[in-house]
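Example 3.2
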Amino acid sequence: MQELAPDVVERNYAKQPLTRAEIQRMLKAAGGVAAVMNTRHKLVKEHGWKEKPPTQSVFLEQALEEPNLLRRPITVKGSRAVVGKDEQELRKLLG
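Structure, written as tokens:
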């Protein structure tokens, strides 16, 4: 990622938790819950969210408590986001 954009800041949310506003921004920029949800997470499997994602408000509350519900990485710039490591899409976003 460094060669794509040296000014990108990586955030370890285990040490510096995401705020409600930050998660809301990610949800909006990425296109909703299904786009950012980590489908491998235990809660997703237990609740059947892969097949029927929760509402944004339910997901937001859960992600505040359990940030690993969010896929990684999520790169946000302005009103757009790229979820995952798609280098072509990242170049478009950061270009």
